[in-house]
Amino acid sequence: MLYNYGSINLDHVYRVPHLVRPGETLASHGYLVGLGGKGANQSLALARAGGQVAHWGHLNANDFWARALLAEAGVNVDGILETRGPSGHAIIQVDDQAENSILLFPGANHVCGRDELKNMLTQASAGDWLLLQNECSALADAIELAHDAGLKVAFNPAPMTDAVLKLPLESCDLLFVNQGEAAWLAGLPEDSSAERLLDALNSKLPGCQLVLTLGGDGAWYQCNGQRHFQPANKVQAVDTTAAGDTFIGYYLAAVQEGCGIEDCLSLAAAAASLGVQQQGAADSIPYRREVEQVLASIRSTT
Ligand code: RIB
């Protein structure tokens, strides 16, 4: 089983001609509210890919429609608990070039502490996975407790902050990073090559599996001496929100199926390429049959 202690956000998405500038008042030309949060998106992607996932998190009772959506997709939601304060939410601007900017209010994603995590982890067994992103509280406790209980820890340090540098990352088994996160973690310039970033992270965290996602420039895997590159499918993006989450959910579902690294990467890349062609976060996450069709068409042309 994979347990995802992850954020659940209500995403308020505005389509804008350009991302609002400091001091500017800008009218949007589209608005929708939907399920989001890196955690919830990743759980949904895992479930739509056919994976087994139980989500742990918190929501205000008024927002339990988000829990129902996850349950409908096949996510085990017994660990999504009610809290009194406001749920987490995000204000997302998406411009006409598919670029986005995201403002987060953590809300209920920051109510969980060490004792509750300890309690949650009693459900898990050695060998299970715990998936984390950087939108929830008590991450150092989560990593340490899961590692000590023999779980494998997958971490996506997004959105990246200096606090991540103080986490016990040496207890993680798998890290999903984009270019900026990799550079920040490695202490290198953001325009460093993928190979340089991977080598630096590998020296810092030997034995940890590294997945570096570069959007339209593909994705890399490295663990010690083993390295793979997955090119991106060339598509016209309309909204890249949750593309990374889709990639991660599909990648982990493939890991659960026992796929090799190259198959995990190609499934994840195909899913992300479909996701960026749809608007929204959770709403953009494709179903497995659609992703298999993309893979089949790639295979037929190579
Ligand atoms: O990765 C996309 C997600 O980031 C959005 O759904 C938003 O809620 C923020 O968490």
Automatic annotation (TrEMBL):
Requires a divalent cation, most likely magnesium in vivo, as an electrophilic catalyst to aid phosphoryl group transfer. It is the chelate of the metal and the nucleotide that is the actual substrate. Pathway: Carbohydrate metabolism; D-ribose degradation; D-ribose 5-phosphate from beta-D-ribopyranose: step 2/2. InterPro entries: PfkB_dom, Ribo/fructo_kinase, Ribokinase, Ribokinase-like. Keywords: ATP-binding, Carbohydrate metabolism, Cytoplasm, Kinase, Magnesium, Metal-binding, Nucleotide-binding, Potassium, Transferase. Its EC number is 2.7.1.15. GO terms for cellular component: cytoplasm. Substrate binds at N9, L10, D11, G37, K38, G39, A40, N41, E135, D245. GO terms for biological process: D-ribose catabolic process. GO terms for molecular function: ATP binding; metal ion binding; ribokinase activity. Its cofactor is Mg(2+). Residues 5-286 form the Carbohydrate kinase PfkB domain. The active site is at D245 (proton acceptor). Activated by a monovalent cation that binds near, but not in, the active site. The most likely occupant of the site in vivo is potassium. Ion binding induces a conformational change that may alter substrate affinity. K(+) binds at D239, T241, G275, Q278, G280, S284. Pfam families: PfkB. It comes from the Bacteria. ATP binds at N178, T213, L214, G215, G216, D217, G218, G244, D245. It is found in: Cytoplasm. It catalyses: D-ribose + ATP = D-ribose 5-phosphate + ADP + H(+). SUPFAM superfamilies: Ribokinase-like. Homodimer. Belongs to the carbohydrate kinase PfkB family. Ribokinase subfamily. Catalyzes the phosphorylation of ribose at O-5 in a reaction requiring ATP and magnesium. The resulting D-ribose-5-phosphate can then be used either for sythesis of nucleotides, histidine, and tryptophan, or as a component of the pentose phosphate pathway. PANTHER family: RIBOKINASE (PTHR10584:SF166), SUGAR KINASE (PTHR10584). This is Ribokinase. It comes from Halomonas huangheensis. The gene is rbsK.
